């Protein structure tokens, strides 16, 4: 779905008032339809009655009923009472009920609420009508306009005004849409006295031809340093090739500049996948919990979101891949960096970031990560006393600013996990093998035990020092 936002400029104030009146009637129609749907009315009965009641044509009424039905279903899916839906916004309504707000501040809130409640209009696109019958884009010599049906064979024209140089491409896209006769939906909204339009075009993608059948290309985005790490595998999950794409332009510059380069980097990733004939694996876009343990907790999560719009870049990769008929697989991102750092970085002598991309690739192929036997032996020999000793060492280095306070939190959690297993007879810490010790607990404790004792100067992003532990099991050496 492509959505384009634009502002309207009316030729005269009278035309604007006519459209505002239409929006008010349509909004009332939608709210009325919502209440009748709650009472069990069917669409056909509503459609017949509402046209005369609100002086709207059949299409406008049908769209109002559809929006009302959508709001009703959304409330039920979210587990909220449909009868308690407040049009205009519950938060704004709640603020208006507070008695300590008065004067200009109260009037400002009331206007905003009324605009959200009454300033709406939605018109669906129709393929048989070559676009949209009620709200049609028309390209004229003096600009691009929206022709709005305001009554029986009565129309008002509003200039579609981007307002800024940066929106020039959007205007050109609207012209292309108007000339191609593809269906598009239009939603009008009133904000701060101005009317804005949101044009939505559902893009038709070609059939998926490049799948994970021959393997995948997976990516790992890194906030520091700004780069994309990628790894290529065959269909069995074996590592074939890898690389890094630096993204210095996303660390600074204007919003438009960063947006431009996000598209460029997305094109680069899709180009690699297309040339190699591989599907693309990315981390799941729906990441909501900033405090979740794992790769996307706290500070890193915020950096990724705000420094270079992590979600925006992945979304662009998805869009471009679909246009090329390339399969896109989303996976759970939890612990991909930790697993890559401890298992594959020393094994293949690659960086932590490329190793994380490799873990993402294997997840996309449905491969489970077998924990190396030497790591299991190492952790079975680890004691709470040793971690307590490590904790005291870290406290000193934190005071000297060689390690960060977060390392203390990680050690405390590791100690807590091991203490919870003290009571289990014949403690065998083999994840998913009849104990309460999960795979994620394993990797968390292992990270503390083998990485924290090494100073940041030694570790950085090169984990080759762990190879002897991983391969030869030399875990009793200092």
Brief synopsis:
It comes from Caldanaerobacter subterraneus subsp. tengcongensis (strain DSM 15242 / JCM 11007 / NBRC 100824 / MB4) (Thermoanaerobacter tengcongensis). The protein is α+β, with helices and mostly antiparallel strands and 478 residues long.
Please describe what this structure looks like.
The protein is α+β, with helices and mostly antiparallel strands. It has three domains: 200 residues, no CATH class; 153 residues, ATPase, nucleotide binding domain (Nucleotidyltransferase, domain 5, 2-Layer Sandwich), CATH 3.30.420; 100 residues. The protein has 17 helices and twelve strands. The longest helix has 26 residues. The protein is elongated. It starts with a strand and ends in a 6-residue tail after the last helix. About 8% of the residues have low confidence.
């Amino acid at each position: 779905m492509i959505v384009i936002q634009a502002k309207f400029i009316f030729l005269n104030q009278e035309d604007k008032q006519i459209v505002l009146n239409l929006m008010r009637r349509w909004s009332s129609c939608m709210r009325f339809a919502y209440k009748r749907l709650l009472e069990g009315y069917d669409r056909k009965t509503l459609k017949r009655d509402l046209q005369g009641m609100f002086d709207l044509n059949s299409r406008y009424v049908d769209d109002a009923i559809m929006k009302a039905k959508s709001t009703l279903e959304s409330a039920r899916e979210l587990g909220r009472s449909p009868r308690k839906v407040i049009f205009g916004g519950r938060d704004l309504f709640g603020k208006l009920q507070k008695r300590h707000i008065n004067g200009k501040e109260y009037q400002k809130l009331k206007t905003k609420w009324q605009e959200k409640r009454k300033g709406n209009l939605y018109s669906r696109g129709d393929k048989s009508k070559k676009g949209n019958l009620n709200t049609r884009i028309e390209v004229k010599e003096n600009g691009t306009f929206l022709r709005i049906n305001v009554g029986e064979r009565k129309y008002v024209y509003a200039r579609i005004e981007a307002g800024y140089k940066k929106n020039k491409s959007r205007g050109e896209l609207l012209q292309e849409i108007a000339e191609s006769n593809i269906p598009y939906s239009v939603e009008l909204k009133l904000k701060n006295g101005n009317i804005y339009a949101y044009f939505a075009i559902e893009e038709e993608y070609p059939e998926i031809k490049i799948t994970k059948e021959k393997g995948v290309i997976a990516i790992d985005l890194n906030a520091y340093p700004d780069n994309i790490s990628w790894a290529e595998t065959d269909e069995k999950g074996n590592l074939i090739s890898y690389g890094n794409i630096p993204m210095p332009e996303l660390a600074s510059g204007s919003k438009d500049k960063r947006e431009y380069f996000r598209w460029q980097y997305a094109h680069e990733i899709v180009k690699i996948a297309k040339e190699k004939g591989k599907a693309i694996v990315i981390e799941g876009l729906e990441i909501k919990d900033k405090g979740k343990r794992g790769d996307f907790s706290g500070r890193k999560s915020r950096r990724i979101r705000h420094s270079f719009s992590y979600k925006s870049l992945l979304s662009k990769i998805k869009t471009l891949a679909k246009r090329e008929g390339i399969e896109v697989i989303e996976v759970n991102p939890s612990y991909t960096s930790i697993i890559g750092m401890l298992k594959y970085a020393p094994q293949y002598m690659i960086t932590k970031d490329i190793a994380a991309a490799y873990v993402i690739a294997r997840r996309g192929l449905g491969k489970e990560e077998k924990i190396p036997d030497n790591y299991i032996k190492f952790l079975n020999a680890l004691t709470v006393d040793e971690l307590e000793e490590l904790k005291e060492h870290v406290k000193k280095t934190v005071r000297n600013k060689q390690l960060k306070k977060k390392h203390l939190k990680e050690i405390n959690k590791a100690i807590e996990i091991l203490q919870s297993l003290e009571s289990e007879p014949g403690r065998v810490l083999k994840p998913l093998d009849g104990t309460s010790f999960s795979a994620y607990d394993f990797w968390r404790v292992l990270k503390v035990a083998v990485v924290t004792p090494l100073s940041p100067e030694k570790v950085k992003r090169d984990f080759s020092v762990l190879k002897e532990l991983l391969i030869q099991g030399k875990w009793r050496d200092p």
